[in-house]
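Today's session is about reading a structure prediction critically. Students often jump straight to the picture, but the first step is always the sequence itself: look for stretches that repeat, for charged clusters, for runs of hydrophobic residues. Only then move on to the predicted structure, which in these notes is written as discrete structure tokens rather than atom positions. Here is the chain we will use throughout the hour.
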Amino acid sequence: MIGELFSKATQGRYRILHLTWFAFFLSFVVWFNYPPFKTTIVQEFGLTPGQAGTIGLCNVALTVPARIIIGMLLDKYGPRVTYSLLLIYAAIPCLIFATATSFNQLVIGRLLMGIVGAGFVIGIRMTAEWFPPKEVGTAEGIYGGWGNFGSAFSAFTMVLFAIALSFLPGSFNFGETQAFNVLGFGFGSDVLNWRAATAGSGIVAALYGVFYYFNVTDTPPGKVYQKPESARGMEVTTKRDFWFLLAMNAPLTIIMMVLAWRLKKVAFLNDATMVIVWIALLALYAFQAYNCWSVNKVLMTGSKVYSAEERYRFKQVALLELTYIVNFGSELAVVTMLPAFFEGTFTLDKATAGIIASSYAFMNLVSRPGGGIISDSVGSRKWTMTVLLGGMGIGYLLFSQVGAGWPLAAAVLLVMACSFFVQAAEGATFALVPLVKRRITGQVAGNVGAYGNVGAVAYLTTLLLLKEAFIPGGEGVDPAAVAAGTAQANAAFFQVLGVMGLIVAFLCAFFLDEPKDSFADAHEGEELPADPISFNQPMVR
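Below is the predicted structure for this chain, in token form.
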């Protein structure tokens, strides 16, 4: 398939795959355009560590409900319309953040930006529509890996983009610019225009959204896009699974309540406002539960009984949600904090630290497709998932030992090795998602993807709490004590990531099922096309 991928890049399903992973790539460039400028923004606005960390949390917060909602919209309206509109929307939070004059406006911009991060689930369904089960792991891995590379590309290029845009005429050079160093090369006092770079990334995404709409279709020629009877809530096939579904929806609400608490801690919300937000979130959970009841009422009242062929086990969805907590959730958290980790641990300038830290996300180019390829090749998607999660857990535990005494090259190599297992496990997760139940693939992908953001918020909150516990505060604190406390907090953080990875690997080994027809030539409920090569032909609109 890899050879075909390049030889037929402008044809049929391969053309759709390339157009779709690039849509995902741009959404991640936009979503991660804050970390490269984090320390610069902190200096410009005089932010406290708590405020800076909260902005990072806000960046992933609304992605939690957004992935659920977009999964529903995806199943109803199809990936073409859904992805195009999301990319066009991306320009709005970029402009809000780029023109910010206060901490509150920064928070609002990043909260709205979190919706852009939900775009990932759209391409999961699009790719599954165009590729058969036996190739879906590789295709989803390429989509996820090459698209996810947008986070590394953002870390590496946004700084250079900002430098280039700093030489625009004054009317375009909005906001304060600052001195910067890139890999030891110093620039003047007015060369970093992070605001124009941020705004520009959103505009590029919006333009591509228009292009995407006019150049893709939801399915290959002659294939019908399968939709659930209702997209208001997830369909289950047993009464037991209905209650399991409601239980697994609860953490999505809880993590949003945690975020509201963090916003109160940095004075964005007061006590009364936080309580109002909590009540609203509980009401939202109740509304979601009601929608799930509406969709599954015929099952719960006994009016409908699913045959054995129609059933699926929600346990599969729940386990995939847990895998995505520990792999993608940890990736989001690590990508956010790694530039600052390298800057502080190895005394690097900001740009150099950001570029080196991008090595973690850079591995997406090979690791996530690698996870999909392994899942397609070894004959067991279950054990592929288990082994990769185990390797991830061990990798994080090893990385917890990295300190100032380490050679920088050794630390970078360990980051890359660890990230391989993290991102390969992500690829293995979404090699399984399209095989749970075809007609609700969008909702399954949305729920699994949302749990990735649950993990990110939980992990970033854990990191903030660890820093508050280990780093001394107040006036006249010895910088050496701050550095030592920071190192302790970082080590404990990576240990948490490692232990959680090993726990979920254990659960997968004992409770994850091998999907039926994992390596079939056609999806559930579909027949092989009379002319299979038609999937490779140029799309006819």
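Discussion point for the tutorial: The chain has one domain: 9-221+231-521.
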